[in-house]
Task: inverse folding
């Protein structure tokens, strides 16, 4: 009996010890996971702070340099260079987009070979010099030449930014990050209108007009930003210089687990041709064209529309800023919710409808307040759609060659949207621009149609992957984000 009692007690003791060790292992495992999660968050936060503020600043400079034509025209350039004759202003605005479109793909393909830091430093320094030279032009033809050079040098910039961001983050993180730098730049560029007004007060200094000083000051600042780019821009994850080796491995591992393209694939003609053979990519490009059209119209014509509503030069420039800041806030909120929900299409629909409502209100409302509210709405809808369409595409592709080609193709179609946005708002339709308004609304309906087709295609492919085991994008287990 004593032996039996001792054996039973031993079994209980052993069992108790085993349970204690198991519990200890669970606690230790949870602790390790917590440490890993904390380390991952700290690493991504470090990437965020190194990348996003700088990208936001650089892209805001791009937007200001590209879209200050409307402000300069309002400040007297239209009279000095006879831009009000015929369609000269529209021509000077849209010629920018010809090289911008044609050079998108080649500039994005060389990005991988020379590195983001070197390429973007060259681009930014180059267009800063062109912007500076624009302040000294004497004829509208000289202005056109500067705009062509500006388009050529800016062509590789935005697709490079979206490409770089997509190589650092998982698919569920991309839209918030793109929206962060995109909308930060939109907000900063809104204050660019106020800055431009302050600069115009230098009229007469050095024998130059106020609009000339806009180009000169902003060009000099752009050249300074080229230096910041060379010193601080993070390159691709595998080439970065600011993370530790362990942090770099973590970033690459996260991307590899998410979509399997952390390691760059070789860029070949056959691969590029294969990528361009997918009709869905062209649908995304057309969607971005439609979303960019009202965005460019807003940046070029908002000061002019406000002037047509009876506001003075200073009032038009100052009132241009609040809609842009509002657009940045709204777009970031939409992007954050979209990332949390893991959905893209429904939020593009919402922002497109916001865009349509704003365009019609601006075109047809009678009161100044109502038309001004319309500018708020279509500014928010257009800028939000642009970042959302880019993210929708970036989420649903695998492979860095495909990512590079798609970024270039989509942004080049955005350039086509820029041409349309600056030409359908014709001088003879001033101040309400009704034909241009309806052309832009029609583009939104085209985008919604393409969005429905694309989303239905993705949903069908996801279903085939589940029911028939079809491998999507060459990666087992991959699913499209809808």
Result:
């Amino acid at each position: 009996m004593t032996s039996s009692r001792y054996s039973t007690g031993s079994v209980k003791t052993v069992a108790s010890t085993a349970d204690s060790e198991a519990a200890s292992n669970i606690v230790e495992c949870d602790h390790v996971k917590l440490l890993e999660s904390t380390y991952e968050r700290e690493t991504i936060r470090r990437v965020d702070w190194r990348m996003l503020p700088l990208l936001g600043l650089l892209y805001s400079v791009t937007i200001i340099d590209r879209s200050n034509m409307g402000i300069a025209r309002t400040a007297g350039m239209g009279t000095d260079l006879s831009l009000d004759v015929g369609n000269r202003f529209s021509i000077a605005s849209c010629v920018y987009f010809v090289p911008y479109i044609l050079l998108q793909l080649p500039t994005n393909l060389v990005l991988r070979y020379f590195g983001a830091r070197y390429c973007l430093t060259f681009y930014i320094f180059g267009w800063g010099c062109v912007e500076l030279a624009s302040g000294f032009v004497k004829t509208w033809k000289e202005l056109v030449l500067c705009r062509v050079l500006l388009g050529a040098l800016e062509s590789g910039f935005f697709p490079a930014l979206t490409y770089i961001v997509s190589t650092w983050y998982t698919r569920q993180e991309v839209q918030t990050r793109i929206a962060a730098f995109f909308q930060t730049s939109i907000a900063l560029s809104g204050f660019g209108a106020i800055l431009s007004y302050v600069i115009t007060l230098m009229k007469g200094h050095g024998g130059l007009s106020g609009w000339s000083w806009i180009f000169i000051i902003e060009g000099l600042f752009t050249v300074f930003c080229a230096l910041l780019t060379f010193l601080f821009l993070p390159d691709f994850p595998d080439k970065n210089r600011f993370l530790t080796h362990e942090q770099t491995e973590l970033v690459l591992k996260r991307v590899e687990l998410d979509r399997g393209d952390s390691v760059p694939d070789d860029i070949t003609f056959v691969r590029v041709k294969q990528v361009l053979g997918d009709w869905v990519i062209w649908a995304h490009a057309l969607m971005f064209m439609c979303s960019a059209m009202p965005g460019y119209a807003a940046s070029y014509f908002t000061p002019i529309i406000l002037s047509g509503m009876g506001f003075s030069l200073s009032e038009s420039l100052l009132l241009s800023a609040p809609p842009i800041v509002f657009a940045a806030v709204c777009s970031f909120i939409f992007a954050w919710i979209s990332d949390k929900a893991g959905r893209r299409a429904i939020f593009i629909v919402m922002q497109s409808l916001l865009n349509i409502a704003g365009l019609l209100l601006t075109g047809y409302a009678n009161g100044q307040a109502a038309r001004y509210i319309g500018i708020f709405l279509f500014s928010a809808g257009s800028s939000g759609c642009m970042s959302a369409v880019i993210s929708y595409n970036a989420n649903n592709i695998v492979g860095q060659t495909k990512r590079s080609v798609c970024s270039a193709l989509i942004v080049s179609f955005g350039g086509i949207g820029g041409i349309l946005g600056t030409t359908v708002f014709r001088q003879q339709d001033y101040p309400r621009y009704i034909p241009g308004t309806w052309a832009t609304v029609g583009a939104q309906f085209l985008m919604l149609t393409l969005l429905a087709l694309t989303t239905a295609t993705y949903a069908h492919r996801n279903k085939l992957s589940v029911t028939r085991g079809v491998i999507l994008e060459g990666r087992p287990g991959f699913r499209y984000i809808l």
